[in-house]
Amino acid sequence: MKLRSIELSLPDPAAAAAFMVDIWGLVPAEVRGTAHYLRGSGAYPYLVAFEQGEEFVRSTTFVCGEDELAGVKARVIEKGWAARPVVSADPGGGHGLLVELPEGELLRFLTDSAEVAPIAGYEKKSRRVMPVKLTHVVFNAADAEASGHAVEDVLGFRVSDRTAGMVFVRCNESHHSTAFARAGFSSLNHIAFEMDDLDTVMRGIGWMRDNGFAPAWGPGRHGPGDNVYAYYIAPFGPVIEYSTPVEKVPADYAAGKPEDWTWPEKRIDQWGVSDKDFAGLREAEQRFRFRRDWESQPLDD
Ligand SMILES: [Fe+2]
Description:
This is VOC family protein. The chain has five helices and 17 strands. By secondary structure, the chain is an alpha/beta fold.
């Protein structure tokens, strides 16, 4: 199971796509109708889709094998979650399920979706950076503990760590592909783009600075996941992150508790070299909510 893409609805997809290509570093993949699809240097046909409409998260897409899909499907039926079968009309195609989590997050699971040739060898001496793929998409939750248990029970995900602020969840060997923030409300928390390495994250920060953007938080190095990060508030709303790959953990990784992840006074990351715009980030995190604009349908066929 792997995180592949996020599909957003927003009023001006062309402007959002222009920022994500010209400044953030993604590459145009395709335009279909009002939908702009953007890719990274990795093998996924796209990482973000912007479709014209009101502001909301249409879906977050995972790709998986037939067996994994069958397992998710059986447990979703057993729990009676809202869901429907889907055939993807997005680049890469594939088929599977669209599932609504208890707090409204919409996750899509696809199998048989195609990949594309990775992009190699862009000029490292240029200022340009290019994200590889998504490394995690984090959600705000009213009850992050319940969300963590729900995705363990129904989706087969595993909680990797619990902190005072987050429940980190993995769906493969990466420490987290998603997480639920203890926010008191449900929404998109942030979208994290995986960069090749620490140097690329830092060059991304420089390129953003050249273009007039300062991090809302970072650079820093997180505790859980051990990734280097820099968070920005995108001009079209959501919080986006440059990140190094999160650490890989073994299948029997023992989930840490909040008391295992504490910081010395004045610290909220390993380095302590940057400030965090708490108010700005919280405001941005409230913009993109989840909206199920489809009816639940039987999954048995
Ligand atoms: Fe993150």
